[in-house]
Each structure stands twice: as C-alpha cells, then as structure tokens.
Here is the input.
Amino acid sequence: MEQIIYNPAKEFQSYQSEHQLNCEKEFERLLKIAKVDENLNITTVKTIEKQEKKLNSTKKVIGKYKALRVFLIIMCIVFVLVPVVAFYFLKDLDKFILYISITSSICAILFITFLLLIFLRINKLIKDFSKMAEKIQSEINELTQKAWEQMRPLNNLFYSRLSKNLIESTLGSVKFDNYLHNNKFNFLKSIGLKDFERDKSIVDLSSGELAKNPFVVVKTRIHEMRKKEYTGSLLITWTESYTDSDGNSKTRTRSETLFASVVKPMPFYYKKSSIFYYSEHCPNLSFDRNPSKSRKDLSDKEFQKELNQLDKKAEKAIKNNQKLNLMNNKEFELYFDCFERSNEIEFRMMFSALAQKQLIDLIKAPYFDSSNNFRLKKVSNLSILFNNYIDNLSLERDVEQYKHFSFEKIRNNFMALNMGSFNNFFLAFSPLLAIPIYQEKWETKISAGNPQEQSLSNWEYEAIANKYYKKALGHGNSVTPSILKTSFVKKEGNNEYVNVIAEGYSITPRVDYVLVSGGDGGIHSVPVPWDEYNKVIKESNIVISTLNDDKTSVNSNKIIDSLNEFTSKLSIDTEGMVKTNNILATILGEEGLTENQRILLEKMNNNK
Here is the structure.
C-alpha cells in the first residue's frame, strides 16, 4: 500500500519501529523455509565458545612456560658469565682461588639444574600443552564445520536485494528496480540528467520510484588532476680561510644542506554520492541550496542576530533594486539558506507552509546529523540531493555479510544490516520527503524500450563492471584506481555485449635538477625526484545476461543454485564469471565466448 510520509522528522522513529518488525517477520519467514534447528546450533556454538575459552587458557599456559624457558636460558647464560666476570674483578684478592671455586661451583650447579629443568620438564610441558591445544583446535574446527552445515539452509536463502524488499514493505510508496533500464535512463537524460564525462565512473547504483516519481541513487568515482609538491636536498661542503684572534691565517670546512622543490601534476580520486529525482511540478524553478554552515546548534541569541542581519540584507537589496524576495517565514529562509531562485511563484508553490515547517523540523531533529548540511539542487524537473547518509547507504549487499555459522550472529547481522540500510535510506531521502509536492504521484508512464535493443543503461554497465571486474579490467601497469567507461555493442538474445575502456596511470620515476645558490657563493643543481604519471588505457569486452524483473528472491536464487549445481556436476570452469541474484556476467576473451561461457549463458537463459 502506497502512503505519503507527512513529516519525516516526526515519523522517522515510527517507521523505524515498523521496519524492525518487518525485518523480524522476514527473518522468521526465512527461518521457517530453511527448517534449521536453531536450538541445536545454539548448543553447538556454546560448545565452540567453551572450547575456545579452553584453547585460550591452554595457550596462556604455553605462553607462561615459554616465558619461563626463556628466563631460564638467560639465567644459564648468566651462570656462564659470572665466573668469567668474577675472575676479572677478584684476581687481585688474597683468597682469589677460594672465591673463584665457590662462585664457579654454585654457578655450575645452578646451570646444570636449570638446564635439566628446561629439557626434562619445561619442554615436555610445552609439548604436552601444545598437543592439547592442537586437539582442542581440531575439535573447534570440526564443531565449526558442523555449525556451518547446520546453518547452510538458512545462509543459502539470503539474496542481495533483501534490504530493498524490506524497505519496500515498510515504505509502500517506494519501489526499486532490479536495474536502471535504458528507457528510464534516456527519459531522465531528456529532462536534464547529464551522462558523466570520462573522468567519472559509476561504482554503485540503485534506481526506483517514490510515488511513481523515478529516482536514481548514484555513487561515483571522480578523477581529477591536481598539483603535488616534491622536495629534494643536496649537502654541499667547502673550505674557507679565516684569521683567528691571534692574527693567524687558518682554514675550516663548512657544510650546508640545500633544498629545492618542484610542482608536478598527479591524479587524485575521490567518491561522491547523490540522488537524482524527477518531479513534474514547478518546471520553471531552479535553485541550489548549498549552505556554508549549519545553524542547528546556534543559541537563540545567535539565531536572532542572524535573523536581524537577514532583514537588513533584504532592506538593502530593496534600496539598491536588487532581487531578494524573502518569504514571510524568516526562520525558514535562514535555515534553508537559498536566496538565489529562478521563479519566486513556483518556489512558494514548492515550499508551502507545511513544507517549510517539515524542513525546519528535519534540520532541527536530534537524530539528523548537524554536520550533515544537505545540498539540494533543482534544475527544471530534475532535483539532485547530496548528503552524508547517501555515502553510507548500501542497498545491494554482498550476501556473505549475512552468513555465519552461529544462528545468533546471523540474526544479529540480519537485523543490523537491514536496519542500517533503512535508516540511511530514510534519512538520505528525508529532505525530499519533507516537501509534500515531491510525493505527489506522477501518472505518466515511461515507454517500454525495444527488447531487441540495449536494455540496461550505460550507468548500470559501469556499476556492474566496477563492482565485479575493476581489477581485471584495469591496465596491468596502472598503479591508480581505474575510471571505467562503458558502451553498448550489441545484443544477442538476452546477452548484452558491452565495451569497457579503463583509464589509469603508470609511474615513471624522474629527477629534476633545480639551481640553488649555496653559502659557498656557487650555484648548485639540487636533485628533486618526482613521479611522472602516464595515462594507460585498456579496452575489454564483457557479456551481461540478466534475469527477468522478478523482485522476489525465489526464482533468482533457484536459477543461481541450478547454475552452481550444473557447473559442479560437469566440472565446468566458470572462467571469471560472476553469478548473483540478478545477473550472470563474464569478461569476453579475444576469441569471443569460450565453450564454458556459452554453456552457462545458455543454461541461465533456459532457466528463466
């Protein structure tokens, strides 16, 4: 059931509780399907923990005996050295022979005693306890393997889009896509979405709809050239003549370290996350809310001072015939901090009294990170949102994150991961949810693409390539991350052939010589080592086969299980193929598809 989230700041905890309940229900559903004996596993894990404590205690005992052995060995060395030292210091005394005899005898007795203690007792104890530790470790390994087998049916039920399905069950107005299809991508480009340049690459991507309005959550690796300063040094020496206080001519050697630096270009990489959101409302309105500071933590006095300054700024603008048309709600104007807007009528339409109140509530909410000063940019019908919650948002999880041999750990992982995804998703979208007009339904449907043509978007290709093949697709000489750019080549059946160009940099060591004046009056060439970054490019091709857009995990899991069983029975080398809930992807060799790759792709298509 679709619903409007009326006030995200006040309803967050309510939705959070509902989501926790949905997570618990889903876990119980999977548990019922798996038919695992959690009580038996809990008993097994307790035995493992008991044995691990026993193992740790045994290792501590071994450590103590080893420390004692080291101490005894050191003492044996001391007992050898004492007579020698005594001989040196006591040789001039009258009773030298008596003292040396007594000292040597005592040291010899202690030396032999400690040596016998080491070989006859300590070493035996260390050996016995080491065998005991090995036996306990072997038992732990067997029990752990047994526990993994007990939880295997449950572990096999986890799938990558679990977090998405659970968010959909809690937030009825949210629907996720399995992929960003090319027809939706082309539509978004038609209303202002710009395809990224060659210095940007999509590393993670999720798309969907909020109240039928399409959105895309994007994480991007960005490359840019910056300057780096390299330094070098040179030690110089020289001889100079001088006259001392007695009038004598003398020479002395002096030294100085000369320093020099050069500035050279080097590639720099960073990640940036954003949400692209379409709304058909207020098409003539553009603005960029990018505040320089957060006002959440201002005292009442400080806030009032800024309000007064805002009023003075407005009065000054009116006198100078400048454009600054403030709304009556000055508190909102100050919190939202966006005075450059292209259409005041549509700005007031979008930011109704309710929207103003809800945005203020959100910004002031205790759980909304005060340092998370979101940026909201709108150009025509396309809005772009930036905040820290998007950076931390993970919607397509590696299923290995859920898996464990302990039932309790599995349940804890399941709850923690899915609650974390929901919290970050809700808070990331909160600035949009706080504006009611963004949740008004868009009734127009995006036209379906030609099934014979490209079905996935280039952004989806990039996300797949970066997620699974960023190392394999990168140039062998590259020492930097690669920027992967993709393009559609052709489609055969359900297989899409994609060209991938990876750009990175290799390093060539260089040395520049910089002329520097020295204290000797001469000019010296100071060597400055630096790294020359040379662009390297590698071109590859990958083949991607997708499952039908079935949002339940059952069919996709069965297909992947079928593929795994198929490859296992026939001993087929998967040759770098990636098998997930939704795709089968592989790198294409120079000779095209290998026989094994062709068999697996056909098997996947026949299973649909």
Q: What stands out?
A: Confidence is low (pLDDT under 50) at residues 549-556, 558-575. The chain has three domains: 38-156, 170-229+267-292+338-438, 451-504+533-606.
